[in-house]
Amino acid sequence: MPSNAPLPQFDDVLDAAARIAPHVCVTPLLRADALDAAAGARLVFKPEGLQHAGAFKFRGACNAVAGLPGADAARGVVTHSSGNHGAALALAARLRGIPCHVVVPEGANRAKLDLIVAQGAIVHRCAPTLAAREARCAQVQADTGATLVHPYADPRVIAGQGTATLELLAAAPGLDVVVVPVGGGGLAAGAALALAGRSPGTALVLAEPAGAADALHALRSGRREPVPAPGTICDGLRATLGEPNFRILHASGAQVLAVEDADAIAAMRLLLERLRLLVEPSSAVALAAVLAHRERFAGRRVGIVLTGGNVDPDALPWGPR
Amino acid sequence: MPSNAPLPQFDDVLDAAARIAPHVCVTPLLRADALDAAAGARLVFKPEGLQHAGAFKFRGACNAVAGLPGADAARGVVTHSSGNHGAALALAARLRGIPCHVVVPEGANRAKLDLIVAQGAIVHRCAPTLAAREARCAQVQADTGATLVHPYADPRVIAGQGTATLELLAAAPGLDVVVVPVGGGGLAAGAALALAGRSPGTALVLAEPAGAADALHALRSGRREPVPAPGTICDGLRATLGEPNFRILHASGAQVLAVEDADAIAAMRLLLERLRLLVEPSSAVALAAVLAHRERFAGRRVGIVLTGGNVDPDALPWGPR
To answer: How much is the pLDDT for A103?
Structure first.
């Protein structure tokens, strides 16, 4: 998306909500006394791991695919994704009966790759660099005429992801803070739009792995800059903030909290125990941020989006006690 | 409950639904292509592990507590439970602001005992026999005037548990079969009432651990008889079918399928992977029964109640691959 392109607005989130309503799962709100006690705050969770294809990503992918004109749709869609967006786009394409190509870097999370394949995508492997992903993607576009649906730097995707926060605000009015993980910034920018339009008094806090903290630096310095070699177990959050995502978030005044991997893993375990939900480390960072900054959230009503749950149950990142 | 006492009816389930509506979580329906493919059938799951206190048990407990006259309520409630019913009753009592006594046998599941304590119950330990549980319970009743809320052989509890199936039928009309686990038979008898009143063409199948298969024998022979020493990992399903539960289920024509523990564990792992839900082995038996009897469910629309998710995440019953 060119840097002078118009940014998506709150109305686009409302349009997305209407467009994806026939397909999306309205995820419930969950809470637990034990988690409130641990945080010293009143927490409600929006478990998007229960969404189709196991992550909020289906919202944005579905919005993009459902909005395609018929002739474009017939040529299919393409994306590069190491995980949840690929599976989500494949599912959205399958529901519309069109082809979906997913460029997957070597070394991608096995549970996520399995899901992409299971959704019927045509998988193209490439080297694990952004340049290789983009080049392979451009090649598929040239070969097939498929429409690129970028995992996060796409106004249709941002608007679609905003529907998660829209639902959260509808089910839990009057939140003081909404906390979401940030990687490329699709969910985060969508949340900023939803909050601005629906609940401008609610603060937005972004949780980011300390080993891939480009959003923290970008929103402080006002300049996007990739982290050269992101190091974190949170495979869904290694991407650099997208350009439109950055512009939306910078204007929103959102704040970023960095989270250590060990804290993300502890939060993941706590959510499995207390909400009976398997979430990926990339999701658990949001609760981890709240627990690591208790003073900041004390006594407040906090909404947390648990972004996804595509984890290999045989490789949970903690051992038996 | 004496054997000539009137049995709860469908109207009692409707009354329960209205009574508990302000307190209960309307759990969502979940499904996954991978699970449909594994079963060769169309499966929808009602994840009651997302219910307050982590199991459907809150429905029956809440119905019993909310329906108590004020003077009785003030003296509190008492039950004997090794697990989910104890936590559920404690929560229901706490919401009404009355005391709750729970008689817990030695050797109870740690995750469940922790939950009972966390909900603020007064815990009384006893030897792990039915006689010891009942004697201790009677003593607490005599000492405090608390009302006994039996875990399953109680019409208020049966009616309350029936609301889980009522919600399932409302959200997924036209099911061919509903499958629920059976232990003492609260959920199962409630399901029979809900089906009879709302969807009499839907068959009821009960899943029971092979190591505690008293319901299988009782519904075949027409006579209740406890299994002398139940041996199964499904700690929530070791109880003998209650008397009113038996009468309702016998009249309903429900069928029982026995499930091996290894199959329950495999189904538990599959649900964690495909629905991102942690369920206890006692819940997973329902899916295990469907997978072990594919021919019986082939092509049919099957509703499955996943009863609870109170499991210690450090002691999942499978090792790393």
So the answer is: 96
The CA distance from B277 to B316, in Å, is 13
In chain B, residues under CATH classification 3.40.50.1100 are 10-56+154-315, 58-148
Per-position DSSP letters for A146-172, written without gaps between them: PEE--SSSSHHHHHHHHHHHHHHHHHS
Query: How many beta-carbon contacts under 8 Å exist across A and B?
Result: 68
- pLDDT over 50 at A321, yes or no: no
Give me A106's structure tokens: 């070597």
Q: Do B50 and A25 touch (CB under 8 A)?
A: no
> Pick from A30, A278, A320: which is nearest to B278 by CB?
A278
Torsion of CA A213, A215, A219, A225, to 10 degrees: 90
Q: Write the ipTM.
A: 0.83
CB contact under 8 A, A313 and B26: no
Q: Do B309 and A276 touch (CB under 8 A)?
A: yes
| A30 φ/ψ angles, rounded to the nearest 5 degrees | -125, 155
Phi, psi of B68 (to 5 degrees): -70, 135
Whether chain B has a CB inside 8 Å of the CB on A149: the answer is: no
What's the CA gap between B15 and B17, in Å, rounded?
5
B247-273 pLDDT per residue, tens: 999 999 999 999 999 999 999 999 999
3-state secondary structure B88-143: HHHHHHHHHCCCEEEEEECCCCHHHHHHHHHCCCEEEEECCCHHHHHHHHHHHHHH
Classify domain A10-56+154-315 by CATH architecture.
Answer: 3-Layer(aba) Sandwich (3.40)
| pLDDT tens per residue across span A23-63 | 999 998 999 989 999 999 999 999 999 999 899 999 999 99
Residue A221 to chain B, least CA–CA distance (Å) = 38
For the domain A58-148, what is the CATH code?
Answer: 3.40.50.1100
Is A160 in CB contact (< 8 Å) with chain B? no
